[in-house]
Every structure is written in structure tokens, then in C-alpha cells.
Amino acid sequence: METLDVKKENGIGWIYLNRPDKLNAINLKMINEIDSILKDFETDNEIRVVIFTGKGKAFCAGADISQFKELNTMTAWNFARKGRELMDYIERFMKPTIAMINGYALGGGLELAMACDFRIASEDSMLGLPEINLGIYPGFGGTQRLVRLVGKPKAMEIMMTGDRIRADEGERIGLINKVVTKESLEEETLKFAAKLLEKSPLILSILKNIILYGNDSPIVDGLNMESLGWGYVFSTEDEKEGVDAFLNKRKPNFKGK
Ligand code: CAA
């Protein structure tokens, strides 16, 4: 891969954004490569959690601004659509996703992190959607996802001032799940991932689906999906295993069936 480094280890699919000289700026090649590796992770039963992070001093400083000079209305629209479709794919990905934020997460970089289920950041990380300073605005889903994550007033402030915020402020407003020291970032992320790896991948997938679709629907539809799905879960082997393990005071061994 030209723009990524990829590793499969202990049930985790690692995606390292790998353009450190450009602070891992996202170009079309990177969009296509992430899409392709996710398709591989999706069908690989060994992979149960996906972690995104950046090589070098940044998570990702956003879309590659150097290519903007060549864009016109049609090609810019197309680029935004491709980026947005990737973020939608990440958000709806069947397996849990974590953004391990190791420095700047700006513009499209923060949009990628926001499409993940969880964001764990090192204390020196800086977050922001500074597109307004370029005379544009977020184009990979940020205008919608940030509002849903932190509410309208803070989201408008972040997008309309373009100001960067520190990781601890991100945690305070609900954008970041956990802030940790720079030295412990990987260890803490792995600890978090370990909790997910213990669970049934099948039930996690169904639960994620219900949370996401329910969040975008009228509550009555979400609640209905919840109870229908709850019934469905009782036809799975993992439900039998989980309940049996509890009743027999042992650890469950979920198989994803
Ligand atoms: N695109 C392309 N190149 C980028 C980049 C980006 N988004 N961000 C950084 N770089 C490049 C710099 O041009 C520089 O390259 P050269 O060494 O070849 O000059 C290299 O990465 C290192 O960057 P800096 O020298 O600027 O590093 P710094 O530590 O002084 O500053 C920074 C770091 C504050 C993150 C600064 O690089 C910066 O402001 N970057 C742009 C952030 C931004 O505006 N992001 C939004 C992009 S638009 C977008 O994402 C649209 C969308 O929603 C889809």
C-alpha cells in the first residue's frame, strides 16, 4: 500500500495512515486504499476490532490541500462524495472501530475519527475542523457528525471559528472517549480493545447496528428494532453460551454464531 501500513495481530486489524511527511493528509489514493483494506478486514473472521492511527507526529491533518488547486465544482463534489462514502462505510462497519489519536486530528482527519465508534487520544493531541480558514467547510461528514456528537452550540463554534481544541477539552464535550498519556496511548487502546475482543462479535455487530440506525430514526422505530433484534438474539449460539457461562460461573467463549 502506498499511503497505509497495515497489520493484523491478535484479532485486531491495524490501519496506519502513512504519509508522515504530509501529516497523513488524505488523498484519493488513501481513500481507495482504506476502502480496500476494510473490505479485506470485513470478511476476515480473525479480525474482530479495527484500529486507525497515524504514523509520525499526527493522526491526520485532513484532506490533502495541495490537490485543491486542481479542483473545480464537479471534481471537488466527487472528491467529497468519495471521502464521505468512505466515512459512512467506516461508521456502518460491522466490527467495532477505534481511532487511536496520536497528535493532530484536523479536518478530514477528525472526520475519520468521528466516523469510528471510539476515540482514544494522547493528551498532546489537538482536534479541530479548520476548513473555514481555507474558505471551505468540512466535506467528509463533519458538519453532521460533530453536531450529533457534541451538540449544536459547540459544533458551530468549532466549525465556524476553526479553532483547535485540546484532547482534554474534546473529552469534556464528549468528542473523545478517553485521554491518556502519549507513552500509554497504545497500551490503553489495546486495553480498551481487549474488552471488545471478549464479547460476542455477532452480538456486538447487531447492537452497533441498532444503536446507529436507531440514532438516525424516530425513537419508535429504534425501539422497535431493539425489541425485534432482542428476540432474534435468542436464536444465536452466543446467547446460549453467555447465559450458560453466567449460570455455571465460568467465562463465556463466544464464537460469533
Ligand atoms: N494537506 C496537505 N499537506 C499538509 C496538510 C494537509 N491537510 N497538513 C499538513 N501538510 C503538510 C505541510 O504542507 C508540510 O509539508 P511540507 O513540509 O512539504 O511543507 C507538512 O505537512 C508538515 O506540516 P507543517 O509544516 O505545517 O507542520 P506544523 O507542525 O508547522 O503545523 C498543522 C501542523 C497545524 C497541522 C498545519 O500543518 C496545518 O494547519 N495543516 C492543515 C490543517 C487543515 O487545514 N486541515 C483541513 C484540510 S481540508 C479538509 O480536511 C477538507 C475536508 O473536510 C474533506
TrEMBL record:
Keyword presence, Cell membrane: no
Gene Ontology molecular functions: lyase activity
A biological-process GO annotation: fatty acid beta-oxidation
Keywords on record: Lyase
Highest taxon of source: Archaea
Classification via SUPFAM superfamilies: ClpP/crotonase (SSF52096)
InterPro entries the record matches: ClpP/crotonase-like_dom_sf, Enoyl-CoA_hyd/isom_CS, Enoyl-CoA_hydra/iso, Enoyl-CoA_hydra_C
Transmembrane segments annotated in the record for this chain: none
Pfam families for this protein: ECH_1
PANTHER family: ENOYL-COA HYDRATASE, MITOCHONDRIAL, ENOYL-COA HYDRATASE-RELATED
Assigned protein family: Belongs to the enoyl-CoA hydratase/isomerase family.
Protein name: Crotonase
Lineage, highest ranks first: Archaea, Thermoproteota, Thermoprotei, Sulfolobales, Sulfolobaceae
